[in-house]
Amino acid sequence: MNIKPLLLALTISCAPMTTYAKDWSQEPLAAVQQAAEQGDVDAQHNLGFMYAEGRGVARDDQQAVVWYRKAAEQGHVQAQIFLANMYVAGRGVAQDDKQAMFWIRKAADQGSAYAQFMTGMMYRLGRGVEQDDQQALAWFRKAAEQGDARAQHNLGVVYAEGLWWTEQDDKQAVAWYRKAAEQGNSAAQLHLASMYYEGRGVAQSNRQSYAWLLSAVAHGNTQAEHFRLLLLKELSPTDLVNAQQLAARYIQEYQPK
């Protein structure tokens, strides 16, 4: 099973939602607008989100940027991340990786695992900052240690391949792949399956490999389906039943987060 591990690409997505002093998401637009204009940072962030997504108001990316910026300047972590994403995508503002890096780094310095992962990707790709794999690795590690599944997967790749002046270590690769796999990360599940198949860093087990491949397939990984069909030919009827039972547990327990 020759699976070449790849680092996850930079993705533009919403940060995990955080609970703040007041939840403005269910309030009418007029109330949110009034509170935002009075300086309520959570209301400012929520108003930006409403404009960005067209929730209760016509979508307006420029207004979204205005309100995200007001909240971001007050230190609101999610607003800083969302504003960075607007700069990455060029939504409501000219595309600008340096500004994106400026705001994502502010959120990362406040301890956001999502922002730390994004900072690592910006360094990895040299977007808005000079390309630096050692900085990328440092930020991935920060995010991984806080539980970010994509960063955990990337650390698994680094150890599996011995990248970026890191000593190749299959056991460390398996440990990080497993952490991400148990959070429903399908890429990590695929690569963990490969480690089981090859007996790298773990006792060789076609049953475990097939179970993780099935879990990855269930979570939308099309590459895993190709390898599942290949491995299927090597399983005995008994091993297949056992692997399917194990996969059913993995699929139920390890949903994407």
Automatic annotation (TrEMBL):
It holds the Pfam family Sel1. The keyword Signal applies. The keyword Signal applies. It comes from the Bacteria. InterPro entries: Sel1-like, Sel1_AlgK, TPR-like_helical_dom_sf. Keywords: Signal. Residues 1-21 form the signal peptide. This is Sel1 repeat family protein. The lineage of its organism: Bacteria, Pseudomonadati, Pseudomonadota, Gammaproteobacteria, Aeromonadales.
